[in-house]
């Protein structure tokens, strides 16, 4: 064999040996990584959780998962709350429905599964709305805390309230289409059988509303939705954060502190947001009459007409049902979000 051929053969052998050694080293490193992860899974998880993009997205992911968990639990109560708000529209006197009578009527017309009508829309709403509002709030609070620590101060209630109001308003705009679809699906059973839309899912509802009424119809009732979200977030997140801060150092365990703070937050969230939730429901439920007009021209027109025709206390009728819907939802959401924040810190 020529010297040139021998040299080429030797070079090829050297390259093959180097490649084989490199592959062995990679395999050993991979095996060692797997072994290390098996021996200390928390470290492997922690390393991943502390990458910058994961840290930035975790408040949003945890918020969405918490909200969807709470909605699955509370959906039947939400269904009754919506039907209660829509009952007796435009009538000041007459029989007043109760949560029990509403539940009985729903079950009489169909089956127990009807209490979960609109669940797909509710889950989509939480995936969008709660993901955004808890994510924004947590992000704002982290920045406020860093700024306060740098100046040797503590985050005050006014700053917590501002973070809650801003996070709620931003999230409400993004989540309005899913919220509207939820109201349409839950109120559909109140219409005569021939007039019902019988939406198959939230996707079907969004597609048909967009096609029949225009894409902007998905943001019907956006103004009261935004105000309601700001009021709810102010009551829920600001008071939850403040209550937890006040309960630190008390004799209560960490779990009981969270439970107590979430119960306080649920009450204030219900009190501040119910009138706007009522108006939001009325505006999102309404469709055009045969003459092309709508029952309400907007948020303030709805406030005025309901006050005149049904009485000002109508806005707070069903407060107990609303609280039973909001408080447990707030408690489950905040507790799950708190737990997820703990395990992913």
Fill in the keyword field for this structure.
345 residues; mainly alpha; Mitochondrial carrier fold; 76% helix
Radius of gyration: 27 Å
Portion in beta strands? under 5%
- The pLDDT mean sits at 80
Task: Using the coordinates above, name the CATH class of the largest domain.
Answer: Mainly Alpha
CATH third-tier fold name of the largest domain: Mitochondrial carrier fold
Sheet having the most strands: none
> What's the helix-strand series?
HHHHHHHHHHH
Could you tell me the number of beta strands? 0
Measured as a percent range, the helix fraction is: over 70%
* Shape verdict: globular
| Number of helical regions | 11
Instruction: Give the name of the CATH architecture of the largest domain.
Output: Alpha/alpha barrel
Task: List low-confidence stretches.
Answer: none
Helix- and strand-based class?
mainly alpha
End-to-end distance, in Å? 66 Å
Number of domains: 2
Mind telling me the CATH superfamily name of the largest domain?
Mitochondrial carrier domain
């Amino acid at each position: 064999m020529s010297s040139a051929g021998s040299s080429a053969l030797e070079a090829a052998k050297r390259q093959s040996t180097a490649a084989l050694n490199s592959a062995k080293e990679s395999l050993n490193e991979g095996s060692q990584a797997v072994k290390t992860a098996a021996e200390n899974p928390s470290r492997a998880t922690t390393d991943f959780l502390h990458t910058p993009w994961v840290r930035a997205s975790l408040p949003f992911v945890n918020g969405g998962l918490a909200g969807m968990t709470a909605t699955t639990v509370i959906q039947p109560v939400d269904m009754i709350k919506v039907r209660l708000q829509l009952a007796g529209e435009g009538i000041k006197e007459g029989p007043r429905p109760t949560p029990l009578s509403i539940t009985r009527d729903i079950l009489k017309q169909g089956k127990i599964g009807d209490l979960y009508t609109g669940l797909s829309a509710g889950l989509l709403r939480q995936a969008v709305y709660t993901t955004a509002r808890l994510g924004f709030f947590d992000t704002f609070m982290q920045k406020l805390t860093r700024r306060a620590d740098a100046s040797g101060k503590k985050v005050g209630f006014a700053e917590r309230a501002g973070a809650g109001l801003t996070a709620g308003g931003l999230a409400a705009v993004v989540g309005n289409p899913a919220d509207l679809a939820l109201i349409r699906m839950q109120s559909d059973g109140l219409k005569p059988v021939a007039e019902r839309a019988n939406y198959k899912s939230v996707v079907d509802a969004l597609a048909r509303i967009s096609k029949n009424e225009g894409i902007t119809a998905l943001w019907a009732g956006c103004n009261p939705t935004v105000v309601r979200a700001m009021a709810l977030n102010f009551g829920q997140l600001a008071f939850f954060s403040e209550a937890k801060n006040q309960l630190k150092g008390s004799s209560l365990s960490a779990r009981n502190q969270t439970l107590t703070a979430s119960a306080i937050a649920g009450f204030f969230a219900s009190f501040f947001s119910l009138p706007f939730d009522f108006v939001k429901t009325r505006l999102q439920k309404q469709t055009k009459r045969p003459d092309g007009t709508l029952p309400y021209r907007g948020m303030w027109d709805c406030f005025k007409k309901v006050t005149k025709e049904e009485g000002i206390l109508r806005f707070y009728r069903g407060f107990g049902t609303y609280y039973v819907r909001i408080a447990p939802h707030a408690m489950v959401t905040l507790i799950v979000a708190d737990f997820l924040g703990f395990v992913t810190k």
